[in-house]
Each structure stands twice: as C-alpha cells, then as structure tokens.
Amino acid sequence: MSTTDEPGAQERKRGARDPQKRRPRRNEEERAVLRAAMAKAYDVDRLTIRDVAETYDVSYGHARKLLLEAKVKLRSKRGTRPPAAKKVWRR
User: Fold this and answer.
1) Is the pLDDT of residue 37 over 80?
2) Residues contacting residue 51 through CB under 8 Å, at least 6 positions apart
3) Residue closest to 38 by CA, chosen among 51, 27, 28, 29
4) Rg (CA), the chain
5) What number of other Cβ atoms are within 10 A of residue 87's Cβ?
6) 63 with 56: CB under 8 angstroms?
7) What angle do CA 44, 49, 53 make, to 5 degrees?
8) How confident is the model at residue 20 (pLDDT cuts 50, 70, 90)?
9) Which of 22, 27, 60, 90 is the most exposed place for a label (fewest CB within 10 A)?
C-alpha cells in the first residue's frame, strides 16, 4: 500500500466528487411556479418534454414528473409506430 498523495483507484476511475454539483431542493412555492411555467411551455408553446427540460435546466425525468403533477395530458410519441392501414371493403 502506497503512502503518497496519489489518488486511489476509485478516484482515478470516477474522479473526485464535487459537492457543489448538486442542486439545492426547491421548496413547494418554487415547484408550483416551475410546474406552471413548464405546463404552459408544453401545452401552449407545444414544446417537447426534452425541450422543456432543456429550457428549465432539469432532467427529462424531472420535467416529466412535474408535468404530470401539473395534471398535463402528455402527448403520444409520434413516429414510434407505423400508421394503421385503412381497411378497404370491396365487393
């Protein structure tokens, strides 16, 4: 075992953690304001969840959770499935 100031294997692998990277928690008033702004951006401005998340500097999951808390009806993903073929009735 070495006694030098050399970083350990874990620190070399992941890097030292910076305690300043974590964002402080938002209180309920701040969450309500953010929820309303995100809901408007999603519904009225027709942004995607990813665009809303990027605009408000939050993760996709957090943006989605706040939109659901705001009782926003989420749009379906377009283009994930081929359109249903129309049945043509012939006699």
Assistant:
1) yes
2) 41
3) 51
4) 23
5) 5
6) yes
7) 105
8) low
9) 90
Give me the count of residues in the chain. 91
Chain centroid to Cα 49, Å, comes to: 7
Decide: 56 and 34 in contact? Cβ < 8 Å.
yes
Q: For 46-86, what is each residue's pLDDT tens digit?
A: 999 999 999 999 999 999 999 999 999 999 877 555 666 66
Contacts of 63 (CB under 8 A, 6+ apart): 38, 49, 50, 52, 53, 56
The 3-state DSSP class for residue 32 equals helix
What CA–CA distance (Å, rounded) separates 38 from 49? 9
With the CA atoms of 80, 35, 37 and 29 taken in that order, what torsion angle do they form, in degrees rounded to the nearest 10? Answer: -170
22-32 pLDDT, tens digit each: 777 889 999 99
Closest CA to 52 of 39, 71, 33: 39
